[in-house]
Structure formats: structure tokens, C-alpha cells
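pinging the channel bc i need a second pair of eyes. not urgent but kinda urgent?? the chain im working w is below, pasted from the shared doc
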Amino acid sequence: MSQTQKLSTWQSQQIPMSEDECEQYRVLIRQSIFASWRNKSRASTLQEIYLDVINRVWELISTGDWAFAPYPRSKRTIDRRVNETAEQKFYPHGIVMVVAVTSGVYMPNPELFMFKQITKKVK
């Protein structure tokens, strides 16, 4: 019996992401963007978001609170989830929570911080 040869460019495949895992990454990404905005008063770059999210995933794995793949996903995968986080289709019943400022830079949606002024009618 012959043994199958692997090509030099062959890479093992990661466990596919479930929709629940994608949603959990989007939650961590939103938390990262809002925390950065609160702490630094500025928008977050993809690199900052990625580093923060993988640190949070490692923490959740170490405490046993991460029910998904036993490792953080790749930067490219997390970048895709960041882009999804800024899409309207993931907020069917409300306002988008995260917006892209420029390519690769994200911040909380300013509309979330706009207070509507209620005008009282004078009789």
C-alpha cells in the first residue's frame, strides 16, 4: 500500500466556524471597539482590535468559558468579523453599533451617543 504524499504547500485545515462562534467574535469585537473608545477616546485599527480580541479569547479559553475552537482564529478571520460588525444586516432590529471611519479603522456609531432633544409644546 502506498502512502499519500503531501505537497509542500499543504496546510491543515482549521475547524470551521459555526454561526454562534462568528456571533461571539462580533460581540468581542464590539466590546473591544467600545472599550478602546472609552479608554483612549479614539477609533481602533484592525491590528489593535485583533490583539485585544485574541487576548480575550485566550482568557476565556483559560477560564473554560470559551465553547468553541481551543485557539483564537487567524487575523484574516477576525478581520472579516470586524467588517461584518459594521454591516447593517447584523443589526436587523436596530442601529448599527460600529462604523468604519476609514479603511481598517473602526469606532462606535456616533448616533448611539446623540441624545434626541424633546421639545415641549407651549400652550
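so The mean pLDDT is 88. and Residues 19-40 form the longest helix (22 residues). — does that match what u expected or am i reading it wrong
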